[in-house]
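Contributing new records

If you add data, match the layout below exactly. Sequence lines come first and carry their own label; structure lines follow with theirs. Keep one chain per record. Anything else will be rejected by the validation script.
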Amino acid sequence: MFKFSREQIVFDIGGVKVGGQPGENPTVMIGSIFYKGDKCVQDDKTGIFDREAAKALIAELEDISSRTGLPAMLDVVCSSSENARRYLEFAADVTKMPILIDYVSEEAALSGMETARDLGIIDRTILNSINPETKSSIYEKAKEVGIRSAIALTYSSRAIISYRERIKLLETLIPRIESAGIENILVDTVVLDIATLGLACKAIFEVKERYGYPAGCGAHNAIASWKALKDKKDKILSMACSAVTNGLPIAIGADFVLYGPISDAKYMFPAISLINAAYAQILMEEGKRPAPNHPRFKISRL
């Protein structure tokens, strides 16, 4: 459980290392901004938002990332060509962390990749995501702008009820993604609800054991879809359940987790840093020393 037999692939994306054996590199924490329902967004169609509020959230995220030793990436949710440009221009200006283009339409994906190229941030941009239904125009644009990093989403109607099907999907997805010039492939094993969280965790283990790719999932979806929990309107209970939910894939070896809104960072980072610190001790017993900024050396100063 604590070491995969396959040699693990580690990518460096915008100065953030993702991948490796459990405890080797800190978990990469991916939080979302400008998602549906984000209070920062004032007009989703045009991409008008509260810049100061968004800037404050990102600053808080960077602070908790520094204090815990867990690297952060910013998942920018784009739904149109116009808001994709506005959101990404803002993100590129206020932070140096890697940025994910989380598109919900073809036009948002195309505009987002063009914007990343124009802004000169391609090296720290990740396309989120590519799945079996991704249109050829998106592959073509990725190759045209030179995007190097993407998330492979192992989603289909059959795969959602089987971790084995997710592995089969990955085998067909990888060659096509590579044909677009994408070299850094992160595997998202898909979480829609509580039941699929278990399958996603099993798939993460299999992906790393068989292929060595960095793997993770959007564990937060299990909480977002849990209606009974929402109905309680209990913030403390919700955050406790969310911390456990996001920690589960990390405990079995996940390299990254999409933990939900960046406003939850102050709750999620300490919980995940605890797991990282615990696993790093295993490496230390084997004679390996984590980097000085690893959560193992920061946990006592939270």
